Structure formats: C-alpha cells, structure tokens
Amino acid sequence: HHTGGGGLAALAHLNSVRDMFALNAADSAGAAAVVDDGAEVEEEEREVASDTFRSTALISSREQYAAMYRRSVEDPDFFWAEIASAFYWKTKWETRDGNKIHSENIDVRKARVAIEWFKGGRTNICYNALDRHVEAGKGGKIAFLWEGNDPGVDDKLTYKELLERVCQLANYLRDQGVKKGDAVAIYMPMLLELPIAMLACARIGAVHSVVFAGFSAEALSQRILDCKPNFVLTTSGVRRGSKVIKLKEIVDDALERVLKEGFAVGTCLTYANDSAVKREDTAWQEGRDVWWQDVVPKYPKESAVEWVDAEDTLFLLYTSGSTGKPKGVLHTTGGYMVYTATTFKYAFDYHDDDIYWCTADCGWITGHSYLTYGPLLNGATVVVFEGVPNYPDAGRCWEIVDKYKVTIFYTAPTAIRSLMRSGDEPVKRRSRKSLRVLGSVGEPINPSAWRWYYDVVGDARCPISDTWWQTETGGFMITPLPGAWPLKPGSATLPFFGVQPAIVDENGHEISGVCSGYLCIKAAWPGMMRTLQGDHARYETTYFAPFKGFYFSGDGCRRDEDGYYWLTGRVDDVINVSGHRIGTAEVESALVSHPQCAEAAVVGFDHEIKGQGIYAFVTLLEGVDYSEQLRASLINAVRTHIGAFAAPDKIHWAPGLPKTRSGKIMRRILRKIAANQLDELGDISTLADPGVVDQLIDLRDK
Ligand code: WT7
C-alpha cells in the first residue's frame, strides 16, 4: 500500500469527496462543481452504434476490446511491439530481460522517473508519415485538403506533393546548419506550411517547438528563451474571420525581447501570406529575415532522412501548469509515433476511404497528434481549416463537411456550444450525410451539448468519441471506440489499450468500484511525455510526487457502475477556457505587472460557451481609483503578457482578498463569489479578516 500523498498530506482535514477537489492547502473545496453531475447519472441515456456501423467497425464489441485490453496490460511489451512492427524501423529496437521493449520507473520513491520505449530502435516519423505511403504506391492520395478563411479559397496536396514540400524545407534548414537535436520555433497560422514545417524538422531530427499564433510577443519570447532556437519560422500575417493579424510584427517584438535577454535568433524564415499581409507591408531586418518563397522552392524535392533513436526528442510543446512559468512538455519519437497512430485508428474507427477533419490548431497538442502525425501515419486525407467555425456564418462547418464529404469530424465542446446557439437551421441546411464518426476534445462535454451534437449534427447516426487526454499524454487515454460499446452523453467511457487509470483518494490510495477522486495512471504508455524541457525535477514533482507510484493527471474523475469514466475538470489551478489551458498564476502575474495593481487572484467560473471563463479579483494600489479605463488596461496587460485568449471575462474590484491568518488566499471563497453562490461560502471564520467577504459581495456588480 501507498504511504500517503506527499504534497497532499496537508489536505488531511478533508473529509468528503466533494471537499477534496483542490490541491491547495488552504482550500477545502476546489475547482468547478466536479462531482455535481450525480443527478444526470440517475437517468443516464445510452446510445448504441447501429448494426451497419458495427459491421465494419475495427472493434465491434466490448468483449473484443476486453480481450485486446487484457493483452495490452498483461504484456505491454508484446502488445506494442506487434503494433510497432507495422512501421518502418531502420534498426530494430533493443530487447532486454527477455522480451522487454520498454522500461519505466514512475515511482519517485524508488529512483529518478524514467520512461523509454523502443530504445535503440532507429526510425523517423516523417518517413513513416509520408515516404512509407509514397513508396507503397499511395503518393497520389490526397494528404491535405486546405480550406482557407474565406469560402472559395482552397488548396490540396497529395502525399507525394507534401513529401516534396517537406523535403525542400528540410534541405533548406539542413543547408543553413540546422542539425539533429537543434530546436526550431514555429509561430504560424493554419497554412499548410505549418504541418510542413513540423514534418521537415522531424525529417532532419530537429526539435520543433510550435507556439500557438495567438500567444503574445512576450509569451513567444519566453518560449524562445527556454529552448533557444536559432531559427524561427513565421508568416507575414493571417486573416482570421474578418480580422487581419500581423504575425511577423509579433515575432519582431519577441525577437527584440529575447535580444535584451542576451539571446539572438539567427534567422527568421517568413512565409509571405500576401492575401493577409503583403511583403511590402512587412517590417524587415536584413541579415536575419528571409522570405520562405525566395529560398525554399530552390531546393531539391528529395531529401535524406535522419534516422533517429526512438528516444530522441521529436518536439517540445509549452503548456500551462499551476505556477507561472510555462512547462516545455517533451515528447520523443518512437513511442509517440506508435501511440498517436494507433489511438487515431481505433478511436475514430479509421478506414482508408475516410475524409477526416480536425478543427484544432497545430499550436496545441491536438494539432500535433491528431491533425498531423496520427492521421498522416495512417495515410489519411486530412482537412485543414484556416478559419473560424462561425465565419462568414454559423453554417460554415457543415458547408465544409459537404464540400469535402467529411466522414470523421473532430472538434471541441466550446465550438459545439457556440454553434448550438445559432440553432438547428444552419446545420439542417446542409446534408452532412457523409459523416460517420464525431469527436470531442478539450474539456468535459456537457450532456446537453453532447445530445445536440449527436442528434442534430450527426442525425442520431454517428457515434461520438469523447477523447480524454492531455498535452502530457501525447495521445488519447480514455475514449470510446465507436461501435464497441454503448455511449453515455458526457462520459469519455473506457481506457485505451495499455492505459491503466486509477482513481485515487486524498491520501494517495487507489479506490475501486464506483467512486470519485483524482485521476491517475498506473503504468507508462508509449505516448507519454518523457520530461519537461530543462527541468526534470519539476516533471517529477508535478506529475509523480503528488500520488506516489502514479502519474497524476490534474483532473477529477468519477467511475460508474459500468466502469465508465466521467471527467469532471481540473482540480489544480489550471483553467480550461474554450479548450485552452491557462494557469491562474500566469494571469495573476500578468495583472500584477500592471503599475497600478497591488494584488490579483484569478479563478475559473462556469461559462455557457467557453466552458470556463476567467474571473479576476484585483486589488489596486493605495489611492488609485477604480475606473472603466483601468479595467480595460488591466485586461490589456493580460493580452500583452499571454495573449487575447487569456483575457479575463470579469474584473472584480477587491479592496481586500480573503486570506487565512498565514496569508494564503482562500480561492474556495472566491470561486463561490465568482459563481454567485453566496449562500455556499462555507466556513469563513478562519479568515484573518472575515469582513472582506461582505465587502467583495457588495462590489460584485461594480
Ligand atoms: C486538459 C488537458 C487533449 C487535447 C486538448 C487539451 C481537459 C481534455 C477532455 C475530455 C474532459 C478533457 C482535461 C485535461 N480535457 N479533453 N474529453 N473530457 N476533459 O489538452 O491543453 O493539455 O489540456 O483538458 O482537464 O487535463 P491540454
């Protein structure tokens, strides 16, 4: 048995499941109403895939799954070796102690946390995603169908053409001295050049670090300073909906900031996206800046593959945690390759003739694993959309579905809820009869949005794969396999092959049967991150120290009588706004950087469209008066430090904040005030000054 919960020992005073959902010592009840959906469980609906669907499904019964699942956890090495054999390996992986192809230690008490899969095997993910298909005679198949921001603007690339584009860029980068292991930063919108850039890096063994093009110059500069790339790839600008964004200006600003910190980026390779921002309207620094179109097309369309070890780094992707500094999640090559390909195939029941559309941006993990690598490794045809779901109108998605005869559509609950608001008509106007499978990702999907997605978008015909996973997990962890078992609206259902979830209580003990608690994972899986860039200690303390012997996800979870998992949201200081992960500490530090802000405390609150919104309590310096102008400039501070997507929805003036006598802010109380649940504030007698609570309530709508 485990000996207690380490950092969670401070939570000893917690005595009910509901009260345990917070990892802050001073908080006795945590984020969102994580276990409040009990009522919905009572009258649980189920949806079973049709016989027609099941007749062609890769996995068509829970029994078939159970047999495979059992093999995957009883002998993971054998299970994954068999799957990995379908990929091309220049050199086969090492086996040790008999048939072991992986080694792991995820128990911080024993030794350093270390995970390896297919070590010694040499491969290349770009080769497996592109060359392998071309060499098998599938070069003429469409790899990417690109749909521009404005209807009527589109493009496409076959596997052969995509490979040629990737090779040209790979040759250019190599020629410019980019070597295996070097980091390359990519700050681009959803042009095909973005996945091309990722694949080109992978081809030469360089480590890509894509930064979502909605991050501010400061956020970009922080990420550049952390991984020190000599190359930054960007675009003159982009049109998103009716807006034009000058991305190169943001990069220029970021590069100046890093220069002040003593680091110089050698080259800024800029793709001229003339339809948004023309070359002549783009500021230029000779010597550093290079137009992509001036150099890349001159390079040969074939390029040697850099064979890398399965455990060589493929990419870094920064994500938010409970503290201020973003974490550089590091993924390696072999396990990630095998895992993203396999999860993609089974969770979407992928068949060769499918047309797959994932609405995610490559700036997030979904765009890495399920827009680029997973689908291309399967030789799929992928729709890439530059725009936004409601431009020019709320029917755009279904217009695109019909245009390309999309069969698998993967999006986020926030998009579903926002489209749902425009009613059924824009959906029903289009046929959508090509659709076969729907997917959801990024946050728990509320049952009413699930129903609308299922009934209206999918005409009660298409199973929904509600995929639970994280930047850190690399790929799906808990997800339906469409056709294999009944779906329940709002549940991600059952674990993927090789994934062993454990629900753990506040003392670090695994609990069984029907229960609620912290979601942990018991053993390593191939797609798991290996470390945090430059900070293995933080990797261990964040993910492996809270519950010893387990990987801790940061999510709350319930398991029902059928063994289905119900994700209930983050239990740490991370909030999930429209599927974008934001650390409250990052927003707070942006706010307190404002010269007139003395202190800030940020919490999440339920938001009809975004899932969660950002609610900021702000204390101003003595003598400063609250004003609308100040409110706007505080919000602007967050836009500059992080990006517009992290702008607070609400600023609540707070002459004082509820603190314990030891000075710790009691966020539990702030969450209740933000949610307007004023009769559920709980015990406030431990506050240093209980009077601040009434004061805050009085100021709620000011
Ligand atoms: C967090 C991870 C995974 C790609 C996109 C987000 C939440 C994600 C689900 C889901 C309930 C979900 C969790 C998780 N989450 N998918 N299907 N049901 N919650 O990746 O930015 O790393 O965020 O998103 O809270 O911890 P991310």
Automatic annotation (TrEMBL):
Keywords: ATP-binding, Ligase, Nucleotide-binding. It holds the Pfam family AMP-binding_C. InterPro entries: Ac_CoA_lig, ACAS_N, AMP-bd_C, AMP-bd_C_sf, AMP-binding_CS, AMP-dep_synth/lig_dom, ANL_N_sf. Residues 586-664 form the AMP-binding enzyme C-terminal domain. Residues 65-129 form the Acetyl-coenzyme A synthetase N-terminal domain. The keyword Nucleotide-binding applies. Its EC number is 6.2.1.1. CDD domains: ACS. Residues 136-530 form the AMP-dependent synthetase/ligase domain. The keyword Ligase applies. It is an enzyme of class 6 (ligase). Coiled coil: none annotated. HAMAP family: Ac_CoA_synth. Belongs to the ATP-dependent AMP-binding enzyme family. This is acetate--CoA ligase.
